[in-house]
């Protein structure tokens, strides 16, 4: 049993990592590497804060390294885990190779765009290769010389499409085909689905209103709005972005203290309400407010104290209370399971008895 | 199961929060998974303090401010003295935040 503060912290870190490992590995989680990175950064920060003394004893938990790991982690995408997070580059989206013969469930599909379209979105009765292959073929075709002949057999439409009319010039490709510049292009990929007749759509609400054109051999759907909508965002209309406040409600629902750390998702254009960074969070009812009501003398004194204390992190005790009593101006409290940060030291306690004079 | 989020304000909690924040910002981690990690941290920290720590502490000082809101006591002490086992620490000002331990068992 760890008795030192550092030992307890190490135990907590290992415990947390081992218990969330399943979430990271299963159900299409980010994977073991991300978990390791999380642990590494966490421990590094703690060493920098001076509360963790290295070297760290790893005898507590031995992480199993699966032999066929990467291939078995990502069940939704049969693809190398590292590439899953790569930003699609021009080479990935529009490789110089000619049109490839799509294979069912081909791994290359995920390299084109990182949107897990799910092959079940649109079934293709006309083809045997699955809708993933169709999407891939669409993007390839947009990059290379356009050929209707090659496209037709895989044309995946939910509406009846006209047979070949011999027109092989895609008029619609001019506007929408923009080579990606190497930045995050998840949002651009939606604009490139100009052919094939279906739009893989990940988000629940509709994006910009689609306008369908039946032009030649191609059934194309263009979006009325030119604006690039981030893939992660559901936007009901092209003109009115709407994001309501911080992302999760889970934090608020689980609130047990007045001090909420609300998690913000990746920075988005429409997100106006941002909670402050964690280290800026003050207590929900700051002392200064109360001081204004009670006494002015103490107000000044406290301000001086606060400014002087800023350089040393505020001394803080976080604990649970069993009982708090008061007799006249004498307060007594029984605390337990606490973490104290005083005089730049972290001290843990199981029980604490406080006696204060008001 | 409800958890006490107050331990996230400790050094270890803040380090974890910053780490998760960086990873979410970079897109390495989803916010939902980050929340799950934090919740697990709450549970692990509570359990570790319950089972692994045996230190007893005595606190004395002048109570400058007290507050009880949402079942959370907040005390601000001045000129506080902490007796930890066989040693002693003195601080000019300390804030104590305490949640009701009975809430966890409900």
Describe the structure.
The complex is a heterodimer of chains A (358) and B (106). In chain A, 29% of the residues lie in helices and 14% in strands. Chain A is α+β, with helices and mostly antiparallel strands and 358 residues long. Among the domains of chain A are: 52 residues, Helix Hairpins, CATH 1.10.287; 43 residues, Roll (TATA box binding Protein, subunit D, domain 2), CATH 2.30.18. In chain A, the strands form 2 sheets. Chain A has a 3-stranded antiparallel sheet with strand order 3-4-5, with no helix packed on it. In chain A, strands 1-2 form a two-stranded antiparallel ribbon. With 106 residues, chain B is of the alpha+beta class. Chain B folds into 2 domains: 42 residues; 49 residues, TATA box binding Protein, subunit D, domain 2 (Roll). In chain B, strands 1-2-3 form a 3-stranded antiparallel sheet. In chain B, a hairpin with a 2-residue loop joins β1 and β2. The longest helix of chain B has 22 residues. The chains are: A alpha+beta (358), B alpha+beta (106).
Summarize the structure.
Chain B: TFIIA is a component of the transcription machinery of RNA polymerase II and plays an important role in transcriptional activation. Chain A has 358 residues and is an alpha+beta fold.
CATH class of the largest domain in chain B: Mainly Beta
Individual helix count of chain B: 3
Tell me, rounded to a whole number, the average pLDDT of chain B.
92
Structural shape of chain B: elongated
Overall helicity of chain B = 25-40%
So, CATH architecture of the largest domain in chain B? Roll
Which blocks of ≥5 consecutive residues of chain A have pLDDT under 50? 60-71, 105-133, 145-152, 166-175, 184-194, 228-237, 259-296, 304-312
Please count the beta strands of chain A (DSSP E, at least 2 residues each): 5
Quaternary structure of the protein:
heterodimer
Question: What is the H level of CATH, i.e. the homologous superfamily of the largest domain in chain B?
Answer: Transcription factor IIA (TFIIA), beta-barrel domain
Q: Fill in the CATH topology of the largest domain in chain B.
A: TATA box binding Protein, subunit D, domain 2
Mean pLDDT of chain A: 62
Helix content of chain A: 25-40%
Strand content of chain B: 35-45%
Class by SSE composition of chain A: alpha+beta
Low-pLDDT segments, ≥5 res of chain B: none
Structural class based on helices, strands and sheet pairing of chain B: alpha+beta
Radius of gyration of chain B: 17 Å
Topology, number of strands of chain B: 3
What is the straight-line distance between the termini of chain A?
A: 39 Å
């Amino acid at each position: 049993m760890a008795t030192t503060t550092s030992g307890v912290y190490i135990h907590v870190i290992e415990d947390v990592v081992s218990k969330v490992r399943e979430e990271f590995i299963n159900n299409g989680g980010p994977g073991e590497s991300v978990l390791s990175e999380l642990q590494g950064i966490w421990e590094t920060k703690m060493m920098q804060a001076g509360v963790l003394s290295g070297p760290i004893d790893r005898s507590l938990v031995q992480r199993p390294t699966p032999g066929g790991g990467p291939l078995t982690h990502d069940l939704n995408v049969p693809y190398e885990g590292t590439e899953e997070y790569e930003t699609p580059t021009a080479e990935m989206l529009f490789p110089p190779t000619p049109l490839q013969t799509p294979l069912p469930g081909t791994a290359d599909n995920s390299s084109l765009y990182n949107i897990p379209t799910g092959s079940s979105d649109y079934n293709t009765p006309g083809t045997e290769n699955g809708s993933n292959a169709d999407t891939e073929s669409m993007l390839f075709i947009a990059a290379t010389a356009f050929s209707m002949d090659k496209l037709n057999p895989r044309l995946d439409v939910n509406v009846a499409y006209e047979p070949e009319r011999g027109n092989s010039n895609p008029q619609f490709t001019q506007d929408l085909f923009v080579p990606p510049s190497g930045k995050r292009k998840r949002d651009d990929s939606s604009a490139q689905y100009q052919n094939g007749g279906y739009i893989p759509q990940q988000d629940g609400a509709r994006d910009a209103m689609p306008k369908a054109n039946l032009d030649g051999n191609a059934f194309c759907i263009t979006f009325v709005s030119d604006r690039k909508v981030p893939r992660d965002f559901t936007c009901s209309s092209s003109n009115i972005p709407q994001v309501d406040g911080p992302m999760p409600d889970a934090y608020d629902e689980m609130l047990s203290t007045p001090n909420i750390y609300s998690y913000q998702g990746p920075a988005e254009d429409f997100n106006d309400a941002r909670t402050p960074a964690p280290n800026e969070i003050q207590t929900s009812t700051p002392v200064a407010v109360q001081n204004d009501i009670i006494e002015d003398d103490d107000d000044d004194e406290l301000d001086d104290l606060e400014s002087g204390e800023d350089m040393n992190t505020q001394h803080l005790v976080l604990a649970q209370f069993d009982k708090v009593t008061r007799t006249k101006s004498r307060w007594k409290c029984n605390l337990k399971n606490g973490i104290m940060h005083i005089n730049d030291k972290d001290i843990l306690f199981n029980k604490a008895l406080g006696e204060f004079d008001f | 199961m409800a958890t006490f989020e107050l331990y996230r304000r400790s050094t270890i909690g803040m380090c974890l929060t910053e780490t998760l924040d960086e990873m979410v910002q970079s897109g390495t981690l989803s916010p939902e998974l980050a929340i799950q990690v934090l919740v697990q941290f709450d549970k692990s920290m509570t359990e570790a303090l319950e089972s692994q720590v045996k230190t007893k502490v005595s606190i004395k000082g002048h109570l400058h401010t007290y507050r009880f809101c949402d079942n959370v006591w907040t005390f601000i002490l001045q000129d506080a003295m902490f007796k930890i086992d066989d040693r002693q620490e003195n601080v000019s000002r300390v804030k104590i935040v305490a949640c009701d331990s009975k809430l966890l068992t409900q």
